[in-house]
TrEMBL record, chain A:
PANTHER family: CYTOCHROME B_B6 PROTEIN-RELATED, HEME EXPORTER PROTEIN C. One of its GO terms (biological process) is cytochrome complex assembly. This is C-type cytochrome biogenesis protein CcsB. Pfam families: Cytochrom_C_asm (PF01578). The chain crosses the membrane at residues 6-28, 49-71, 83-102, 107-125, 145-167, 188-206, 282-300, 328-347, 362-379, 391-417. It is a multi-pass membrane protein. It comes from Paenibacillus sambharensis. Keywords: Cytochrome c-type biogenesis, Membrane, Transmembrane, Transmembrane helix. Residues 78-190, 318-414 form the Cytochrome c assembly protein domain.
Automatic annotation (TrEMBL), chain B:
The keyword Ribosomal protein does not apply. It is found in: Membrane. GO terms for biological process: cytochrome complex assembly. It comes from the Bacteria. This is Cytochrome c biogenesis protein ResB. Its main location: membrane. One of its GO terms (cellular component) is membrane. Residues 67-419, 433-530 form the ResB-like domain. The chain crosses the membrane at residues 69-87, 125-147, 219-237, 481-499. It is a multi-pass membrane protein. Pfam families: ResB.
Automatic annotation (TrEMBL), chain C:
PROSITE patterns: THIOREDOXIN_1, THIOREDOXIN_2. PANTHER family: THIOL:DISULFIDE INTERCHANGE PROTEIN DSBE, THIOREDOXIN-LIKE PROTEIN HI_1115. This is Thiol-disulfide oxidoreductase. GO terms for molecular function: antioxidant activity; oxidoreductase activity. Keywords: Disulfide bond. CDD domains: TlpA_like_family. Pfam families: AhpC-TSA. It comes from the Bacteria. Residues 36-174 form the Thioredoxin domain. InterPro entries: AhpC/TSA, Thioredoxin-like_sf, Thioredoxin_CS, Thioredoxin_domain, Thioredoxin_ResA/DsbE_sf.
Length: 421, 553, 175
């Protein structure tokens, strides 16, 4: 058994431990009102079980990380799979720290699913160890990526707590305009999360079925002198093609539910690398997520926010608000150091410029500016509760866009060397 | 609105003061009648900008001293920065000089993007303007708050007004049964000291304080940011900043633009990942593992303008440049940026063959860039008439060159020799086989092609220069200041976020203890501190019960 | 800080901001790419002529002149050269100088090329594109018309007819 085998076993162990830990936290929080037991004792007992499981899960995750490091010969943060699993691990570290301060099992009920989704999302990407290009062979890079991910993990915990706060305080019975608007938006947030789950589900479903289709895409480009050059690229799909790449011919396709050919063609302005495939993936995610959401609605027969809301009753919303804020406040200096200062040191070393307005850099700056606005609003303008929690939720969207969106969308429309989704 | 600035304790306050600077009593009548927790920002001191009759300077000052404005500026900057990431910026291209690029690549949206100047968002006047305004706001906001805060914290009165204490966000009131209240206070002070509080006592009134330094965190952070921004601005001082590229073929020496330095690419090498190092799906693909330029740096000491022949160079340093390890000399740095492994033809050593006799003369060394003017080969004499770097036939049907790059070199000789016209006959020679065919060398040379030819016998007679290295040449004298600014800013952040300033006031009036506590962050920890201390004094309570509401920051 | 110190401090800071900020913003507006524009002074240079003699731009101070960039590889540049010679014959007595800077080509190319022409005006040799970059050239030929007061009166990108040159030179000599 070599390092990488141990590593992948540890990864699976961590994943299931997290799932169990999540379950126990849910029992801890939701089971308070069960008959014939004292609520405080019940919470204490089950949250201890949950914490033990999540801590062992984190330990397994750390084993995964270090064995992969040993096996690959470089720190496993260099491709999307490695980075996302590392982010999941950082969230668990951040969660553990915040949990030790506040001892709230409720936080586990939200932070763990977040970790689970991120780790599952990571598994969508190719898991092979890849060699490093020269620019990535730097110690500063290791420090930069790990520190930045840790800072982002605290923002993620802040997001989880903010979302909890909102689910706790939003009046789901209210009928006035403000209450309805809040209900709609929280429901939309939950829907988006389910679409991401749907994306992961769709990818694994079709991967299990070993689905494949491929296309030949023809790209015509003109150089400065006006000379035409034609390139043909093979585009592989692992999800049934609802949308085929722009200006492409089908080479092979497995029929799916009677669908024997693509229904649409991607628009011409989506001319970046694999833009057609990415669009197809987005469509599938929305379909799968909507189906899942519809199913849940059918089961519960009320909005999901209203389903979660009662389980949170009796929890002090101000604690949640403070956890959310503290988490962000702890994460902010870490993020500044990792995502900006260490990044600048590395960039200065590798390219001789500490700042180059590269989209990834700009988005790290945008994230930083966003959270500094959050902190100013909270500390100096007294934005608390609702407003601050919404900001924490939106902030995490900004973080995720910086991490994934920049690579998928901006790199998808242009041809930046990005990580392929 | 702030009329009465003299407090009942006798202290004369500045205009704009919310809580008396001395005893902490709410000054505003409306506020005094209320029972809600007090706003403790800057301890209720007047901010510098609050003044009765603002003039123009005061108005500008007030504008920039507002946190609201600061947040708005941050948000606009953030949105502006987003716009710049829609399409690649002009700076992404080494030499951007094609105004049609955006329209050609992205169509109409691209054209609009370019016309709006968003293709250079981060160098635009409005983006720089926003940064300048943020910088201004940093200076004025900080100055406007740090001084009153400093004054307020520097001379604190120990015995505070009862209303000040009971209207804090963490409050405890209760009966003290001990007869000697002063002794009780002393004992409580001991407990607080154990928790690292600094304790000041005035009879049975007490003030305990810890981590005051964390209040300076935000201001230190702001000072760091200002320094950082100034350092960035300083790069535009002439000579402080340079950023160019040098393209150096192996073996060549190239002058670094706008400097007195020359760089020689002694040797360029690339290591590729071996198949064993690559995962399965990448087998047999070419992936660079490391590329290195063995470089020598020269300084020009004489005839640097190149007007009197070749400049005189003196070697100053050498370094093996790899991606994370630049050559560095007196602030000038050369970074490995990219490379082009395509070999370039440097010279050929052909034989002149007399087709009739079959005799061969030579070989002779024909350099592409620096050919000799005359070659004497046995009975033959080759006089170089001219050389075309990138051969073409122009509109007048004459041979010409298309560019300065040696894409299709051609040599035009005047050949003299046995049985040839004594005045000489012209002969054109293409060293590259492809060009020979493309431009039909034999047809161009007509009869002479039947008489002589240039023949390259083996690949050993072809000299090919190795890969071309692309180096990024930089001078950045502002860097130390940038790092210092970043470091100061980071220190400020850590001070401000990982410690918090906690204060506890208490007084005992007729056996009734009134205790109030304040912190700038982390109320959870503050309540735990108070509860723990009271527990030591025999008062058991749940930390949460100390909450007086409104504890959110 | 005492109340009476406050105003001066405010004024000093605001003036500082105005100067530094104005400089930062102004830089973005007025200096773009560093290429000389109409009304600017032409960037200085020191170049060798065909015989190795050194020519400095400041040697021609006070004279109206044409600074032309050319290369043997650029047909419109080549086409212009006899036209410049005609203009030179016509106006040299009035003080007109023509400095034709070759685009960093090598000795053989330039010499063998000029053998076919009979040019009297000054041909200069750029080295490693130094002066070319300083003048921010994007395409060839590019011609700068410099008035006697030392400012650029006109910049023409692309090949010119004799008429084009003539009208510009007349304007140059009037000013």
């Amino acid at each position: 058994m070599n390092w990488l085998d141990i590593s992948s076993s540890a990864f699976i162990a961590a994943f299931f431990l997290y799932c169990f830990a999540f379950l126990f936290y849910v029992i801890a929080v939701a089971g308070r009102k069960w008959s014939n037991r004292k609520p405080e004792e019940h919470v204490r007992k089950w949250s201890r079980v949950g914490f033990v499981f999540s801590t062992i899960g984190l330990a397994a995750h750390l084993v995964f990380f270090f064995t992969r490091w040993a096996g690959a010969g470089h720190i496993p943060t260099s491709n999307m799979y490695e980075f996302m699993t590392f982010l999941g691990m950082s969230i668990m570290i951040a969660f553990t720290i915040i949990y030790l301060i506040y001892r709230s099992p409720l936080l586990g009920m939200f932070a763990l699913p977040l970790t689970i989704v991120i780790v599952a999302y990571a598994a969508v990407f190719p898991q092979k160890v890849q060699p490093l290009v020269p620019a990535l062979q730097s110690n500063w890079l290791k420090v930069h990526v790990t520190t930045a991910a840790l800072g982002e993990a605290f923002f993620a915990v802040g997001f989880a707590a903010g979302l909890m706060y909102l689910l706790r305080v939003i009046d789901f019975k209210g009928t006035d305009k403000a209450a309805r608007r809040a209900q709609r938006w929280i429901e939309f947030t939950l829907y988006v999360i389910i679409v991401i789950v749907g994306f992961i589900g769709a990818v694994f479903l079709f991967r299990g079925m070993d689905y494949q289709a491929s296309f030949t895409q023809t790209t015509i480009s003109y150089d400065k002198t006006g000379a035409e050059s034609i390139t043909e690229d093979k585009v592989e799909y692992t999800l049934p093609p609802i949308v085929k790449p722009y200006n492409s011919e089908t080479t092979s396709i497995e029929p799916f539910l009677g669908m024997k050919s693509p229904l649409f063609e991607a628009p011409s302005w989506m001319n970046g690398a694999n833009a057609g495939r990415k669009l197809n993936t987005v469509i599938w995610s929305v379909i799968a997520g909507t189906l899942l959401y519809g199913l849940l609605r059918l089961v519960f027969r009320k909005p999901l926010g209203a389903v979660i809301h009662p389980t949170l009753e009796g929890i002090d919303p101000e604690d949640l608000d403070e956890i959310s804020y503290r988490s962000i406040a702890i994460g902010f200096p870490v993020f500044t150091l990792g995502a900006l200062i260490f990044a600048m040191i590395w960039a200065e070393q590798a390219w001789g410029r500490f700042w180059g307005w590269d989209p990834k850099e700009v988005w790290a700056l945008i994230t930083w500016l966003y959270y500094s606005a959050y902190l100013h609003l909270r500390l100096s303008r007294g934005w608390q509760g609702h407003r601050s929690s919404w900001l924490a939720v939106i902030g995490f969207i900004v973080v995720m866009f910086t991490l994934i969106g920049v690579n998928l969308i901006i790199a998808g429309l242009h041809s930046y060397a990005g990580v392929d989704g | 609105m702030f009329h009465n600035t003299k407090c009942e304790c006798g202290h004369q306050n500045h205009a704009g003061t919310v809580l008396c600077e001395s005893c902490g009593k709410p000054l505003d009548a409306e506020l005094a009648g209320d029972n809600a927790p007090l706003e403790m920002r800057y301890d209720g001191a007047a901010r510098r900008s609050q003044k009765a009759n603002p003039g123009l300077i005061d108005r500008v000052w007030n504008f920039f001293s507002s946190v609201k404005i600061a947040v708005i500026l941050i948000v606009i900057t953030l949105l502006g920065a987003m716009l710049g990431t829609i399409y690649p910026q002009e700076g992404t291209f080494i030499n951007f000089n094609d105004p049609e690029y955006y329209e050609d690549t992205y169509g109409l949206p691209g054209k609009i993007y370019y016309m709006l100047g968003l293709s250079h968002t981060y160098e635009s006047w409005w983006f720089i303007g926003l940064l300048v305004m943020i910088g201004t706001s940093l200076v004025i906001c900080s100055l406007d708050r740090v001084l009153p805060l400093y004054k307020a914290l520097n001379k604190q009165q120990i015995r505070k007004h009862l209303q000040f204490i009971t209207r804090q966000k963490v409050v405890y009131t209760g009966r003290i049964d001990d007869a000697d209240t002063e002794e009780w206070t002393v004992r409580l002070g001991e407990q607080l000291r154990k928790r690292n509080y600094k304790v000041y006592r005035d009879g049975d009134a007490l003030l305990a304080e810890k981590n005051r330094f964390s209040r300076w965190g935000p201001y230190i952070n702001h000072i760091g940011l200002i320094l950082f921004l100034l350092a960035v601005l300083a790069r535009s001082i002439p000579g402080w900043h340079m950023d160019t590229y040098a393209v150096v073929p192996e073996g060549d020496t190239v002058r670094l633009a706008d400097t007195n330095y020359y760089l020689k690419n002694v040797e360029f090498s690339v290591d590729y990942y071996s198949n064993e190092e690559l995962p399965e799906e990448l087998r047999d693909t070419v992936r660079a593992k490391k590329y290195q330029t063995k470089a020598e740096l020269y300084e020009c000491v004489d005839n640097c303008a190149g007007t009197q022949g070749e400049p005189v160079l003196e070697k100053v340093t050498e370094h093996d440049i790899i991606v994370n390890s630049p050559l560095s000399y007196k602030g000038l740095k050369a970074y490995q940026f990219d490379y082009d492994p395509t070999p370039k033809l440097k010279a050929v050593n052909p034989m002149l063959v007399d087709k009739k006799t079959g005799e061969a003369y030579g070989p002779f060394h024909l350099s592409i860039t620096e050919p000799e003017m005359l070659y004497e080969l046995g009975p033959y004499r080759l006089e170089l008439i001219t050389r075309f770097m990138d051969f073409t036939i122009n509109e007048q049907g004459k041979p010409a060159t298309k560019s300065r790059e040696p894409n299709a070199p051609a040599f035009l000789f005047l050949v003299k020799g046995p049985e040839l016209d004594p005045a000489g006959e012209t002969f054109i020679y293409f060293p590259k086989q492809v060009d020979k065919q493309r431009f039909s060398q034999d047809i161009l040379n007509r009869e002479l092609a039947e008489r002589i030819e240039f023949r390259v016998d083996s690949m050993e007679e072809v000299e090919i220069s190795g890969a071309t290295t692309y180096l990024n040449i930089r001078i950045d004298k502002a860097m130390p200041y940038i790092w210092v600014g970043a470091a100061i800013s980071m220190i400020g952040l850590v001070m401000g976020f990982y410690w918090n300033h906690r204060r506890i006031w208490l007084r005992i009036d007729n056996g009734i203890l009134s205790l109030g506590a304040h912190t700038n962050k982390n109320w959870y920890g503050m309540r735990n501190d108070v509860a723990a201390v009271l527990r030591r004094m025999g008062i058991e309570l749940d930390p949460k019960s100390l909450d007086n509401g409104g504890n959110k920051t | 800080m005492k109340g009476k110190m406050r105003k001066p401090v405010q004024i000093v800071i605001l003036i500082g901001v105005l100067l530094l900020g104005g400089y930062a913003i102004g830089k973005t507006l007025f200096v773009s790419g560093g290429a000389p524009k109409i009304g600017d002074k032409p960037p200085a240079f020191e170049l060798a002529g065909l015989n190795g003699d050194v020519h400095k731009l400041e040697d021609y101070k006070g004279k109206p002149m044409i600074i032309n960039f050319w290369g043997t590889f650029c047909p419109p540049c080549v086409k212009e050269m006899p036209e410049f010679q005609n203009q030179y014959d016509k106006w040299h007595s009035k003080g007109l100088e023509i400095l034709a800077i070759n685009l960093s080509e090598d000795d053989i190319t330039v010499r063998s090329f000029l053998r076919d022409f009979d040019l009297d005006y000054t041909i200069l040799r750029d080295h490693e594109k130094t002066v070319e970059k300083r003048y921010g050239l994007r395409s060839y030929p590019t011609t700068f018309f410099v008035a006697a007061d030392g400012t650029i009166q006109d910049i023409f990108v692309g090949g010119m007819t004799e008429q084009d040159i003539d009208t510009r030179v007349e304007k140059l000599l009037q000013g």
